[in-house]
User: Fold this.
Amino acid sequence: MKKKYTTFAVKQTENLCKIPSPSGFTKLATDYLKKECKKLGFVASSSRKNSVLVDIGGKGEPVVLAAHVDTLGAMVRSLKSNGRLRFTKIGGYPENNIEAENCIIHTRDGKEYSGAIQLNNPAAHVNRELAKDKRTDETMEVVIDEKVRCVKDVEKLGISTGDFISLDPRTIITKSGFIKSRHLDDKASAGILLALAQMAADKEIKFNRKVYLLFTTYEEVGHGGSSGVPKDAVEMISVDMGAVGDDLKTDEHKVSICAKDSGGPYDYDVTTKLIQLAKKNKLNYAVDIYPYYGSDVEATLFAGYDIKHALIGPGVAASHGYERTHAEGLENTLKLLELYLKK
Assistant:
C-alpha cells in the first residue's frame, strides 16, 4: 500500500475532527463526507437519520464498513440566573474530562457563541475545596464569552434550552506522527474509510465483493447502526477506535481486533480471518477484549439484521477524553482492510 493513503487518512482525520458534530447535530460533518465522496467519483446517499452510505465498488455478497462521525458533546439544559448555562451531556463521559474545555454554543437559528466549561467556583485562590468538589452538571456550568449577567441577557443572544454545545477538539499532528484530538473516536476511522475510497477511486484495489461505506450519526447514544444498512448486506465490520489501557495489548501504533466487548463475542469466522491475515502479513496488531464498549454493528444486530459482524480499529488512548493515536495505527488498520477485501 502506498504511503500517500496513510497521509490522506491522517489529513481527513484532522479535517473531520475540526468539524463540530455531537450526536444529533452532524449535518456539517455529513455534508463534508458527501462532498469528499463526490470528489472521488462516488455517489453518497443519506438516510432519514442522516447516515451517509456510499457504494465504492466490487461484486458479490456485500460487506458494510461502518464508522461514525457523531461525537460526544452537550446540550443546553437551562439558562441560569447568573447568565451562565446548565448543560446535559451527549454521550457517556465523566464531567472531569471536559473541565476547563473551550466550547461553542450552536443556536437553533444558526448563531455560534464561544464559551468554556468550568466549575461553579473554579478559582484556586478562592475555593480551598477545589480539588475535592464533585464534578456534575450541578457543580459545573458553561461560561459564555459575552457580557451576560442574567437570564434575559442570554435570551437576547438567542441561546435557549435545547441548543447544542460542541467541544474544542484541539487537534494537533506532531512531527513524530501522533494525532492528538478530541473525537478520534471515531473520526480517525472515518478518515481511514475515506482513504479506502481513495484507493478504490485510484484503482489501487480490486474488491473481492461489493463494498459499502456507512458513516453513522448516532453511535455515541446507542442507535447509530440500527438503520440505514443496505438490505443486501451479509456482513458488517465496525471500524471504530481500539481501546487502550489496563490489560489490553493495543496501543496507538496497532490495529486492534476486538474479540468481545460488553455486547458479547464477535463473529468467529470473520474475526478469525482478520487475525490470520494480520498475523500472516506481519501487521502490528493486537487482539483484545473491551470491557466497557459497544459498537454500531451491535446496534445493527439488535435492530434485527441477520449479518456476520466484526470490530477493528486503530488504537486510541484516553478514550472519551483528549485522545491520542498515531499514523501507524491508521496505516495498519487500512492495510488490514485492504488485505481482507482485495481479490
